[in-house]
Amino acid sequence: MNLPDPKLYQKGAWLFGAILLTASVSGYFMGLRQTGSQISMTRPVSLVTADSERGAVLATNSVPVAISYAKQDWLRDGANGHWQNHVAHLAQPPSNLAALTNATEAERAVALTERAARRAFDGAPPVVPHPIAQDSSAACLACHGPGLAIKDKIASKISHAQYSSCTQCHVPSGGTGLPASETALLAPLAANQFTSVTPPLKGSRAWPLAPPTIPHSTLMRSDCLSCHGPGGLFGLRTPHPDRQSCVQCHVPDAGLDQHVFSSAVK
Amino acid sequence: MQRREFLKLSALATASAVAATRAGAATSAQSTATAGTDGIAWDKAPCRFCGTGCHVRVGVKDGKVVAIQGDQLAEVNKGLLCVKGYHVGLALYGKDRLTTPLLRKNGKLEPISWDEAIETIAKRVMAAPDKFAIYGSGQWTIPEGYAANKLMKGGLSNNHIDPNARLCMASAVTGYLSTFGVDEPAGCYDDLDKCDVLIMWGNNMAEMHPVLFSRVIDRRSRGEKVTIIDIGTRRTRTTEFADHYLEFKPQSDLAIMNGIAHLLIKNGTYDAKFVERFCNFRQAPKDPTATPTAPLIGDAMTFDAYKAAHEPYTPEHVEKISGVPAAKIRLLGDLFGRKDIRITSVWCMGFNQHSRGTNANRLCHGIHLLSGHFGKPGDAPTSLTGQPSACGTAREVGTMCHFLPGGRLVANPEHRKESEKFWNLPEGRINPKMGHHTVLMFEKFCTPTAKGGDIGTLWVQVTNPGQSLPNLHKLFKAKRGLEDKFLIVSDVYQTATTELADLVLPSAMWVEKNGMYGNSERRTQQWFKMVNPPGDARDDCWQTIAVARKLFEFGHPGLKDKDGKFLFTIKNDAGAEVPAWDWKHYYDVNVDKALFEEYRPFSRYKHKDLAPYDEYVKARGLRWPVVQQANGAWRETKFRFSEFDDSYVKKGAEIQFYHSTTKDDKAQIWFAPYEKAAEEPDAEYPFWLCTGRVLEHWHTGTMTMRIPQLSGAMPHAYVEMHSEDAAERGIANGETIVVKTRRGELKLPVWIDGRAKVPRGSLFIPFFDQRLLVNDLTLGEVDPISKEPDYKKCAATVGKVSQAETFRASSVEKSL
Hints:
The complex is a heterodimer.
Chain A: H1 6-33, H2 36-42, H3 51-59, H4 73-77, H5 87-90, H6 105-117, H7 137-144, E1 148-150, E2 153-155, H8 183-186, H9 225-228
Chain B: H1 3-20, H2 25-28, E1 34-35, E2 41-46, E3 55-61, E4 64-70, H3 83-86, E5 102-105, E6 108-111, H4 114-127, E7 132-136, H5 142-155, E8 161-163, H6 170-180, H7 190-194, E9 197-201, H8 205-208, H9 210-221, E10 227-232, H10 237-240, E11 244-247, H11 253-266, H12 272-278, E12 279-283, H13 294-297, E13 299-301, H14 303-310, H15 315-322, H16 326-337, E14 343-347, H17 349-352, H18 357-370, E15 380-383, H19 390-398, E16 403-404, E17 408-409, H20 413-422, H21 438-445, E18 457-461, H22 465-468, H23 472-475, E19 486-491, E20 503-506, E21 515-518, E22 523-527, H24 540-553, E23 570-571, E24 577-578, H25 583-586, H26 591-599, H27 613-618, E25 622-623, E26 627-628, E27 634-635, E28 667-670, E29 687-692, H28 708-713, E30 719-721, H29 723-728, E31 736-740, E32 745-752, E33 762-766, E34 794-800, H30 807-811
Parallel strand pairs in B: 7-8, 7-18, 9-10, 9-14, 10-11, 12-28, 14-15, 18-19, 19-20, 29-33, 30-32
Antiparallel strand pairs in B: 1-2, 2-3, 3-4, 5-6, 5-20, 12-13, 16-17, 21-22, 22-25, 23-24, 26-27, 29-34, 30-33, 31-32, 31-34
């Protein structure tokens, strides 16, 4: 058996070194260039190991690569399998912004119905559709601070972050959450006949392609993307969240009385 | 047409449409309403609920309130509200609004006409004018309270008129009076923006005064530093935001404050200069019965005696009494000893509903005065009120059994004479004898006439004593079966009080009528009627005037002034008399304005100067004294007694307590010892029972329990219990248990680690639920000076309930 030519071996080592150097240097700069936000904004990062990668890993005898939790059977087939609690299903990848389109009329109607159901009138603080931690605003902000989407459940991002006592205005619709409340006590004393005005449907456009006006009051709504961003109700999402200055093109509708009383009043 | 012009025109059109439901032409010109093209007309009003006094914008369309917004122009709330405030408009629209007068016939309430109702009342009064009493409210508007006060004291020479504020703010009143010689806080809400330290004494501000609490904690969002100290008997939502939580044993707040004074003296950190220039020392009088005001004036005390009295209150001793670690007492002592920080103290029912409530208030003022933390923005002891006009109506109009308007006393001959002059009454008309305070009034009403029950007819307006009085079995339910007693209730819904009423009058509420309120910070507010009341409901103020007129027609001599004219003679701008007692003509003139202008001169005596009515129309409230400037403008006062802001302080005085009880322009620093509670836990009743409120419901829940968003969040009352106490008794979370005191028992669900966390050996039950009346259990014991009951402390025991029993059987009284 012939030993390799030492010269050739040396040449190969040099070549290998050069490749390594090039790869590490370029990799280093590529790493610098690709910040986390860029990745999330432009290329969905899948938590699931792609099948091709997985296959490749299994086919070689190299160092084994950990399989994504999402692929493990104990999550899919265990006792709690019916909960459908795959990480893959729970944590959604950031939206592919490029793929967003205008919501259809039907989708918008669904969203508006859901929106109206949580408010006594347009402008009232929405009630909380889930049980809450009764003694902690910090618990609210754990999800609603940054905004969070878990499967089809969306925790909208707070749109008035300067106010920190959440339960001052937002109360749960489902009672105290006490485990065994007597049903007799849950019935209201009497019905209420309050009727509100029709909630805003959509803003008006000066002509077909003009940007629509904002059909609702903007008081205490400092972040349009709380509702209209990728974490908002589906039918209300903007198709272009990449344009960040919303009020550059959309202004409150002239029909809304948003001015602060007459000048005669102090 | 330009858009601006169109807006103006449509605003005008809507404004005039609204005005049609309003007073006459005179007031419609003052309309503050504006309207957008969506057809909603917006106008200003203070919120109907608590004493914070937020302003809301009320959206009206087609004669109905359709929306509410926080008023951005309001200094109190700056556009923010709490969940109750945002839903206040729904309070008008509960399906079971009372819409017609009801008289009990053969045990059943049956509809009658207004004429019959008014005549029924007048006949009862004519039959026994001295056995008639009015029980009013801190939710009375200023003109409503003023009219009732004038009818009773000026018309019937009868001082049996007291408001529910007796159950709420009476100890704050006696605290202010005995310290400063004049009622109500010297500071205002601006202190909340300036303080470095906020101390909440037994005060769950996050739930009870949420907007004021946000005003402080939101400063943190802006990068400001404010230290928040929660001194309480249970962990609440307020505690979550606190830098320090000091949990004390009920009643030991007295010892904690004495401990602070002890440290200020011992460390030499009290403000010697401030004390020498501006303060005296006082203690309880040897003979409290010497004069009617003796308990408020007290006896003089030297500084040495004051020092000696505090000697025992070392941090270690205070720790033993209160359970608060000595180190935390030192922390408070050190903070008060610092001159480089501003400290604001706030309290509400923790101090006031206290068997030593007057003393608790005094001691808090005392440590602020002793340390010099007074009179600068951010340095103030301030009591918060629970009702929208506890200050404006109950305290300022003086609808209490011992007051005349403007801080005057019925016992003082000079004050009676002045009041008679203002009211144009013959001399000697006003009765010099104090009337019955609330607890006594109901005790007498519930006692058979033959056994000395000297109140036969009681008219309740704008409040719900059948739920809010303590010890209900004794003070309210005992009325049942007393045939000759007659209970009249003016309200908007059926309540625990109307259950026993003989005559029910349907009232207009909030923006269904003109009104004026006065909030916690001396701010007087005004609003106009915006919608019509339902059915045949009418203004409380009209009801009072109509009864007065009927008495006048029946020939009661008291209803005539000294010129023989009717006591409530109201004229329009042209000077013509308007028959305001006739409902058809009630809104021909602005009765509120007429009564307010008549009341205004009363306000000058204690320098609580009120501005003309029209100034309040323009403002989101003004804080008195409102003083007219050389240029004619009206200027409000934020910081009373401080030269830099209060124009009644002598130049160069810096601080002047110009109503000092010692007549030397000084405030009084009181010594009061720690004393035990009226009832404390023992072997038989081992728990402390505390009662109170929750964020979603306002007081007895009459309005808020009918608002789906609020009752949906908090559908029923519950009892808070410590998890270990529950575990020891095998009680599970949510289980229905029985809570028992010496006065009654109640079955309701346990909530462990829920909204708040009580320490071991403590229970808490909110009082909003009319189906689960915790006041069947509470103690009727009152503070000896203010006559305010202690709702926060009594002894109770708990037990399991067998499965077969439901709490419905016990909560809805067997006697119902």
